[in-house]
């Protein structure tokens, strides 16, 4: 079982910070408008930040993936823990991508698409760019070997 | 070949009608400014003439032909368009006719190809005969195409050219002979009593929403009907009681109306519903005002769902739905699966499901009994929340002061029963070829997914599920209804069972795929050696391989993109 690159925590923390700041800003706006004390929005923002950080750490800890002989297996989730098995025969195509945040810390993600409806795209975040393209190539190769004639 | 000549006036009137409405609206505004009625009439006349001229040109330009391997359409008056649709890519050919079209003997055709819900080609109005010809011709050529491709691949694989040539010729001729006479077997025909029942049991939930949207816009219109408290006081009645009674009357009216609307739409939709099967596809026909007919290839069928509720069970009825990959015919019209049998005797449904995709029956593995306590707790929490809200409302809003907020508490007695049934109905079974799940308190749904249709297998555990040491295992398919979260799911099973179920599903998927692959190659080998017109087994296998081939092409195209 592989863990993600530990720098993914930075991304998740950054993302939750953005969310916390937006919410905090809105709360501050309301507080200023109703001329209430600013301690409530400040406290709220702090709470969101703490929750975000804890969530990011737990999320990192719970994330595992492995490429088996015939399936890609993922384990993730903090409140709801999800384990997904993507049979290699079912892979339609594979992407690797880098968002702005990801480029900032030098990471990339690989996205696996199937024809399914619920788990139609499975994202593996927190890979180094090389790992991401390696994984993409490997999955692609395995998917072709696995004889994709039964993709639907 | 050309469109039906009658399509010219029909299309022209359709178009002119739209123009005329615009003109009338403009005219009614315009009269204030000084436009005369005569001008509007002249405008309408002009519009009709213009539309006729355009549609005649359209009719002149429109041309469809069957070439050896594509269906070609040339069209367009101002913008010319030429389309070539390979037969192999055509998935469904749907024909629909509404009342006026039937009077004029016209049919509308939609050609669907793989890859999404969009219609590849809409042929607007050919004669009814031509429509059936197109449908049959495309099906025939599509099969021949598949057949040819298969033999071609096989011949290419084969090192000894001579034997391959001889073999493919015999199979080809055998194939054509076979395809020229597609024997159709009637699977299901709705009986009048079933149609009536379908109507009675249909309740259109969209009606209350629609009425709500309409009436919230016209509160001022409603409020004069509601008696003023002062006026009511003189009659000596309790104003809150009057309000309450009016609410009840309104609610009952709403339910009755939704019911009537649902019943009418069900009867109109399912009038003359017929389901037939040929070797490779299901064909349906239905509709009173607008006649729909179409085909569903077997290889596209993903799941078969049988649902019933206590009332239907008591009367011995059930409902069947067939889910296909990607595109559900009529999806745009929001009616879901067209091959759905709205209601029929339970044994008929069971036999029909057996015909479509046979699956043995058996007992279900239920979730652990302790989980009933969780369901009960959930129901009680929901009841408490509703009661709390009503109570808060009755305290805060003066008009609602006398509201019987404690009414939902009656549900406390129903909650244990519901919790029990929720548990009782839940379960899963691993059949020989199918993963079967069952869910639902009132409306019980049994879903069967063939192992070779499974996509991803998802095992999820929420915080609360972890406390009860249970998990949910979902077998995702490429079905179209599953977008609503309707996948086959074994909910709340023991964590250990979930883990083993997951790996079991994975193994069975691989095993059944390997099996199908073996069958396919086995079949072509047999055809190669014997060149037999075919016993029943080889025909059945041919269907299987057709499916595989179609998928490969779709898949290849996908990759190339």
Automatic annotation (TrEMBL), chain A:
Keywords: Membrane, Transmembrane, Transmembrane helix. This is YdbS-like PH domain-containing protein. It comes from Halonotius aquaticus. The keyword Transmembrane helix applies. Pfam families: bPH_2. InterPro entries: YdbS-like_PH. Residues 60-139 form the YdbS-like PH domain. The chain crosses the membrane at residues 12-33, 39-58.
TrEMBL record, chain B:
Residues 59-138, 270-355, 423-503 form the YdbS-like PH domain. Residues 535-553 have a biased composition (Polar residues). It holds the Pfam family bPH_2. The keyword Membrane applies. Residues 137-178, 518-561 are annotated as: Disordered. Keywords: Membrane, Transmembrane, Transmembrane helix. It comes from the Archaea. The chain crosses the membrane at residues 20-53, 207-226, 241-268, 376-397, 403-421. Residues 140-152 have a biased composition (Basic residues). PANTHER family: TRANSMEMBRANE PROTEIN-RELATED, UPF0699 TRANSMEMBRANE PROTEIN YDBS. This is YdbS-like PH domain-containing protein.
């Amino acid at each position: 079982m592989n863990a993600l690159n530990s720098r993914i925590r930075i991304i998740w923390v950054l993302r939750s910070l953005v969310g916390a700041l937006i919410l905090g800003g809105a709360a501050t706006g309301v507080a200023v408008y109703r001329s209430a004390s600013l301690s409530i929005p400040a406290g709220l923002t702090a709470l969101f930040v703490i929750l975000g950080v804890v969530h990011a750490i737990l999320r990192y800890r719970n994330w595992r993936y492995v490429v088996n002989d015939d399936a890609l297996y993922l384990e993730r989730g903090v409140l709801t823990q999800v384990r997904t098995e993507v049979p290699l025969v079912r892979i339609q195509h594979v992407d690797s991508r880098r968002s702005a945040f990801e480029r900032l810390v030098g990471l990339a993600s690989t996205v696996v698409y199937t024809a399914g409806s619920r788990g139609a795209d499975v994202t593996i975040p927190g890979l180094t760019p090389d790992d991401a393209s390696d994984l993409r190539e490997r999955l692609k190769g395995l998917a072709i070997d696995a004889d994709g004639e039964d993709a639907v | 070949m050309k469109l039906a000549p009658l399509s010219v006036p029909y299309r022209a009137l359709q178009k002119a009608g739209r123009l005329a409405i615009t003109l009338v609206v403009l005219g009614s505004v315009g009269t204030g400014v000084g436009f005369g009625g005569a001008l509007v009439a002249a405008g309408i006349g002009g519009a009709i003439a213009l539309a006729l001229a355009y549609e005649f040109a359209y009719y002149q330009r429109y041309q469809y032909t069957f070439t050896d391997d594509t269906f070609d359409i040339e069209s367009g008056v101002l913008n010319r368009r030429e389309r070539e649709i390979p037969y192999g890519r055509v998935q469904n050919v749907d024909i629909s006719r509404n009342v006026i079209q039937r009077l004029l003997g016209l049919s509308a055709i939609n050609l669907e190809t793989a890859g999404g819900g969009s219609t590849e080609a809409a042929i607007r109005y050919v004669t009814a005969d031509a429509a059936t010809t197109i449908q049959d011709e495309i099906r025939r050529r599509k099969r021949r195409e598949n057949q040819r491709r298969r033999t071609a691949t096989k011949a290419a694989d084969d090192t000894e050219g001579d034997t391959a040539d001889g073999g493919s010729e015999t199979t080809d001729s055998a194939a054509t002979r076979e395809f020229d006479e597609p024997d159709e077997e009637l699977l299901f025909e709705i009986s009048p009593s079933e149609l009536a029942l379908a109507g009675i049991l249909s309740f259109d939930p969209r009606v209350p929403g629609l009425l709500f949207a309409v009436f919230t816009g016209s509160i001022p219109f409603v409020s004069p009907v509601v008696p003023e408290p002062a006026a009511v006081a003189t009659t000596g009645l309790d104003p809150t009681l009057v309000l309450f009674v009016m609410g009840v009357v309104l609610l009952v009216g709403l339910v009755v109306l939704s019911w009537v609307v649902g019943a009418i739409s069900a009867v109109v939709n399912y009038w003359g519903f017929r389901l037939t099967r040929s070797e490779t596809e299901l064909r349906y026909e239905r509709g009173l005002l607008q006649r729909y007919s179409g085909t569903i290839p077997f290889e596209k069928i993903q799941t078969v769902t049988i649902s019933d509720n206590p009332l239907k069970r008591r009367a011995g009825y059930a409902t069947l739905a067939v889910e296909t990959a990607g595109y559900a015919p009529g999806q745009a019209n929001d009616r879901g699966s067209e091959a759905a049998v709205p209601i029929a005797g339970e044994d008929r449904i069971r036999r029909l499901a057996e015909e479509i995709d046979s699956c043995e029956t058996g007992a279900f593995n239920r979730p652990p009994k302790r989980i009933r306590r969780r369901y009960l707790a959930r129901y009680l929490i929901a009841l408490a929340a509703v009661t709390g809200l009503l109570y808060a409302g009755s305290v805060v809003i003066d008009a609602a002061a006398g509201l019987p907020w404690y009414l939902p508490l009656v549900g406390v007695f129903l909650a244990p029963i519901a919790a029990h049934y929720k548990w009782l109905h839940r379960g899963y079974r691993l059949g020989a070829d199918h993963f079967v799940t069952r869910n639902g308190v009132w409306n019980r749904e049994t879903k069967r997914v063939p192992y070779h249709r499974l996509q991803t297998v998802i095992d999820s555990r929420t915080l609360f599920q972890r406390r009860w040491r249970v998990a949910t295992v979902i077998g995702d398919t490429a079905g179209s209804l599953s977008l609503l979260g309707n996948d086959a799911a074994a909910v709340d099973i023991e964590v250990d069972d979930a883990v083993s179920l997951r790996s079991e599903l994975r193994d069975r998927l691989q095993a059944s795929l390997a099996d199908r692959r073996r069958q396919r190659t086995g079949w072509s080998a047999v055809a190669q050696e014997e060149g037999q017109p075919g016993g029943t087994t080889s025909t059945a296998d041919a269907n299987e391989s057709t499916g595989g081939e179609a998928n490969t092409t779709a898949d290849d195209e996908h990759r190339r993109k």
